[in-house]
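Postdoc handover notes: sequence design on the structure in folder B. Input tokens:
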């Protein structure tokens, strides 16, 4: 039992005090192992622990940034206990947890778990940052109003977030007719993956679509299945590693990223390299968004 407890209590990147202390850390990892509304292949509840396990093998020095990112402090919370009564109640739990962390001035990184959970974090950040916009990197629009009997499933998450604040969708390459009609009715134009590949859409155009305060939600199926097969609904023709990093880095340089999530990772569907890729993505994202010497303040907006 002792070995099992030690396994479950691993910290992100294997950090130890003082860099893993909650009070000192500017970044908090929120693992949420939940997948009640998945459409095809289940197992995203195993995603958070797999990412944390793989993070034990990260090099803590980042060559690109020329610094040890962990020195901003990264605390790993225990896994969030799932609510079995339904996705709406689980979203409420995530909202309350995130709200408490924001009030403590923490930069929140949620590891999922299914994408429906992002509604909870978006709600909390919208309250703290009234001019918030949400940047979604995803293969799918997730704009259905209702799916499989609920308005709070993963296929509806961006419809619900759009009711809260503006959204900008990047990497889209699959959607329903209902979702296409919703986009037209609301005069929304995602940055489709086909456009990103075939034209010279500038990063500036994406940045111009965002407000100053940005929450980033990443469904990891935005990545091409050649490097990320471990998802519930894989779609061909996705982003490569460097494309994702370029977008994140550009947003971090010109906007105020208030938090982010990595969702829909299904480790049983791919090699362990997928978990390591996402651990490294989370670590680099923290490096881009939480520079050393800059404290994250509740309700503050940086001057990019």
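Designed sequence:
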């Amino acid at each position: 039992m002792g070995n099992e407890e030690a396994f479950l209590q691993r910290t992100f990147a294997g950090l130890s005090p003082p860099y893993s202390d909650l009070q000192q850390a500017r970044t908090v990892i929120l693992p949420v192992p939940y997948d009640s509304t998945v459409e095809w292949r289940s197992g995203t509840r195993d995603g958070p622990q797999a990412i944390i396990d793989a993070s034990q093998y990260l090099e803590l020095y980042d060559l690109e940034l020329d610094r040890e990112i962990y020195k901003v402090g990264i605390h790993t919370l225990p896994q969030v206990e799932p609510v079995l009564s339904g996705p709406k109640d689980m979203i409420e739990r995530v909202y309350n947890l995130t709200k408490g962390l924001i009030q403590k001035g923490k930069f929140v990184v949620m590891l999922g778990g299914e994408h429906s959970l992002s509604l909870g974090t978006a709600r909390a950040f919208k309250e703290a940052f009234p001019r918030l916009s949400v940047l979604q990197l995803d293969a799918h629009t997730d704009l259905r109003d209702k799916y499989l009997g609920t308005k709070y499933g993963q296929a509806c998450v961006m419809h619900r977030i759009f009711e809260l604040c503006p959204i900008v969708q990047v990497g889209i390459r699959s959607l329903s007719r209902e979702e296409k009609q919703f986009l037209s009715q609301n005069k929304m134009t995602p940055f489709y993956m086909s456009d990103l590949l075939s034209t010279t859409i500038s990063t500036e155009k994406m940045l111009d679509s965002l407000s100053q305060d940005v929450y980033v939600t990443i469904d990891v199926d935005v990545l091409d299945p050649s490097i990320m097969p471990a998802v519930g609904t894989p779609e061909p023709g996705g982003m490569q590693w460097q494309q994702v990093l370029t977008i994140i880095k550009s947003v971090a340089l010109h906007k105020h990223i208030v938090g982010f999530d990595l969702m829909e990772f299904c480790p049983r569907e791919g090699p362990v390299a997928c978990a390591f890729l996402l651990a490294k993505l989370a670590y680099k994202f923290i490096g881009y968004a939480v520079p050393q010497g800059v404290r994250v303040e509740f309700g503050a907006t940086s001057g990019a």
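Context for whoever picks this up: Residues 140 and 174 are 5 Å apart (CA to CA). Don't rerun without checking with the PI first.
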